[in-house]
Write a structure and sequence with these properties.
The protein is of the alpha+beta class and 355 residues long. It has 2 domains: 4-232, P-loop containing nucleotide triphosphate hydrolases (Rossmann fold, 3-Layer(aba) Sandwich); 239-354, OB fold (Dihydrolipoamide Acetyltransferase, E2P) (Beta Barrel), CATH 2.40.50.140. It has 8 helices and 21 strands. The strands form 4 sheets. The protein has a 6-stranded mixed beta sheet with strand order 6-7-8-3-9-10, sandwiched between helices. Strands 13-12-11-14-20-21 form a 6-stranded antiparallel beta sheet. Helix 2 (92-103) crosses helix 3 (107-120), helix 2 (92-103) packs parallel to helix 4 (136-148) and helix 4 (136-148) runs parallel beside helix 5. The mean pLDDT is 89. It binds adenosine-5'-triphosphate. Adenosine-5'-triphosphate binds next to strand 2 and helix 1. It is a peripheral membrane protein.
Length: 355
């Protein structure tokens, strides 16, 4: 078990800053997901935690102990690279026990721990089978077994499901999460896939361009994104952004889009009479005959229980997720109403959400 504390952690490669002064704490037993686009510094952060990369400055504390310059082998942290690169010529037992044999653990303990892990993953009946002949799902369990047999203080995983097709990914997400709940070890999981992050994380850390933008439980980063980048990166289809103006109306702050006033429920300081960017998720806009913002239906995509309606307004193109009971026809003029409670307003200069 381990708490991992990151203090002012920075990594530069020449002039390029890959990680720019991160500060956060990964709690003991937490499933912590680092999310962001390619090149944002997730892997570099993970490699510094593992001891595979030395920071330019800052500190890493493992259960309060400064391990910043400890070697990887002195950290008791398991780095899971590709979950699925098994040794095809070995059997299940040999694959699972490999990390222990490398460590020089006694034969008796290797045997006991391998069998314990196999039982936990319900593959104990396959121990003498070659992995090359196994079904894909069983192979993945073997890979998981090999990853956890070391009983490290923490597990670091870098896009471990990256190479899998969609169906297996879903299954493995579920298995990984269940396994984590059972063994309870601190896990840091890197992905660029927001759906995976939302499904698995206790907390998500969103990064972009070397900076940590927000850390929160999935619902928090979805409902209360700290910046425009976070808002746009999380959620599919993406949040709509519209140019807007802040103002006051009947004593409350209001926001106007194209002259149409959308009253805001809570007063938002810093919003009065300034330019702003309004963020509205597709499911927080309602289509009807009338509404404060009018537009023309550009396209309707049927999605089973729901439909995705694209509407062109004078303020820009919007995507609306509506129930199928709502009639929307291409070319028709409709009215749009916004769920004021759920709107997010961004400062157009800093891109930060105005609370
Ligand atoms: P990806 O998912 O593509 O791996 P990432 O968020 O994990 O993205 P990093 O691998 O941490 O990103 O890389 C962050 C930036 O640092 C990238 O622009 C990368 O090119 C750069 N970088 C990483 N390692 C080195 C290195 N050894 N030398 C120079 N630049 C590097």
């Amino acid at each position: 078990m381990a708490e991992i504390r990151i203090e002012a952690l920075t990594k530069s490669f020449g002039d390029f800053t890959a990680v720019a002064g991160s500060n956060f704490t990964i709690r003991d037993g937490e499933f912590f997901v680092m999310l962001g686009p390619s090149g944002c510094g997730k892997t570099t952060t993970l490699r510094m935690i593992a001891g595979l990369e030395m920071p330019t400055s800052g500190r890493i504390l493992l259960d309060g102990e400064d391990v910043t310059f400890n070697r990887a082998s002195q950290r008791d942290i398991a780095f899971v690279f590709q979950l699925f690169a098994l040794y095809p010529h070995m059997n299940v037992r040999q694959n699972i026990s490999f990390p222990l044999r490398v460590q020089g653990v006694s034969r008796r303990e290797v045997r006991a721990r391998t069998e314990e892990v196999a039982k936990m993953l319900e593959i104990d009946n396959l121990l003498s089978r070659r992995v090359s002949g196994l079904a894909a799902g069983d192979r993945q369990r073997v890979a998981l077994g090999r990853a956890i047999v070391r009983r490290a203080k923490a597990f670091l995983m870098d896009e471990p499901l990256g190479a899998l097709d969609a169906e297996f990914r879903d299954r493995m997400c579920e298995e990984l999460r269940l396994l984590h709940d059972r063994i309870g070890a601190t896990t840091v999981y890197v992905t660029h896939d927001q759906i995976e992050a939302m499904a698995m994380a206790d907390r998500i850390c969103v990064m972009n361009k070397g900076e940590v933008l927000q850390i929160g439980v999935p619902m928090e980063v979805y409902e209360r994104p700290a910046t425009r980048f976070v808002a746009g990166f999380i959620g599919s289809p993406s949040m709509n952004f519209l140019p807007a103006q802040g103002g006051f109306q009947a004593g409350a702050t209001a926001i106007r889009v194209n002259g149409a006033s959308l009253a805001m429920p809570q007063a938002r300081e810093g919003l009065a009479a300034t330019d702003a960017v309004l963020g509205a998720r597709p499911e927080h806009i309602t289509i009807a005959d009338e509404g404060p913002l009018r537009g023309r239906v550009f396209a309707v995509e049927y999605m089973g229980a729901r439909q995705l309606v694209t509407v062109d307004t004078d303020a820009g193109r919007l995507r609306v997720r509506a129930p199928n009971t709502v009639r929307a026809k291409t070319g028709e003029t409709v009215g749009l109403t916004f769920d004021a409670e759920r709107l997010v307003v961004f400062d157009p200069v800093s891109d930060r959400a105005v609370r």
